[in-house]
């Protein structure tokens, strides 16, 4: 009888551990990011003033909001690297690192993406763009108006080519479409919450 109770306890503990690991590493990142209490919504089409931090020319600007400690951010590094390679001559790519736990150098971040593009460590950029989680993509047109703010893909591994939302936004802007339409999965924030980039 004691053996059966111990075995039942062992299986219960094992089941609980597997469930907890699934929650910590997978399921919680599939839920929308909670909107912070003091969140100030930034509407699509709004002029984004980033003149204090970022140098611009007359190209569209793509901000990648990134946290090296966020699993979702880590999984989409190859996808973002591909976007930089594909569109780097037509769009100014910039990485905004949002992490309060560790200090990363510009060179470390550039090395992760295999690209020598500007890297910022300024939370104010996220606030001005209305970003509440990582990873998130923000695309500004050449006039610095918010064209797209949202997810890269409906899967955290960026494996579904039919839902490459950030790439679709770039293509749409370069074709000079005035207002692209995206579904809720593209525009609702998922991933690691700000300001500490952990859920």
TrEMBL record:
Q: Where does the Thioredoxin domain start and stop, copy by copy?
A: 29-175
Pfam families attached here? DUF6436
Q: Which InterPro entries match?
A: DUF6436 (IPR045494), Thioredoxin-like_sf (IPR036249), Thioredoxin_domain (IPR013766)
Superkingdom, taxonomy of origin: Bacteria
State what protein this is by name: AhpC/TSA family protein
């Amino acid at each position: 009888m004691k053996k059966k109770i111990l075995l039942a306890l062992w299986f219960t503990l094992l089941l609980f551990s597997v469930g907890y690991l699934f929650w910590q590493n997978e399921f919680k990142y599939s839920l929308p990011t909670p909107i912070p209490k003091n969140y100030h919504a930034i509407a699509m089409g709004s002029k984004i003033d980033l003149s204090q931090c970022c140098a611009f020319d007359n190209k569209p600007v793509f901000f990648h909001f990134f946290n090296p400690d966020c699993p979702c951010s880590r999984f989409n590094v190859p996808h973002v690297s591909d976007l930089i390679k594909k569109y780097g001559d037509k769009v100014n790519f910039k990485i905004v690192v949002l992490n309060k736990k560790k200090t990363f150098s510009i060179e470390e971040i550039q090395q992760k993406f295999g690209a020598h593009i500007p890297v910022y460590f300024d939370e104010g950029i996220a606030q001005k763009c209305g970003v509440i989680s990582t990873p998130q993509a923000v695309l500004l047109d050449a006039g610095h108006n918010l064209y797209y703010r949202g997810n890269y893909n409906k899967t955290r591994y960026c494996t579904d080519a039919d839902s490459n939302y950030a790439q679709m936004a770039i293509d749409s802007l370069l074709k000079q479409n005035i207002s692209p339409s995206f579904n809720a999965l593209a525009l609702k924030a998922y991933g690691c919450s700000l300001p500490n980039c952990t859920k």
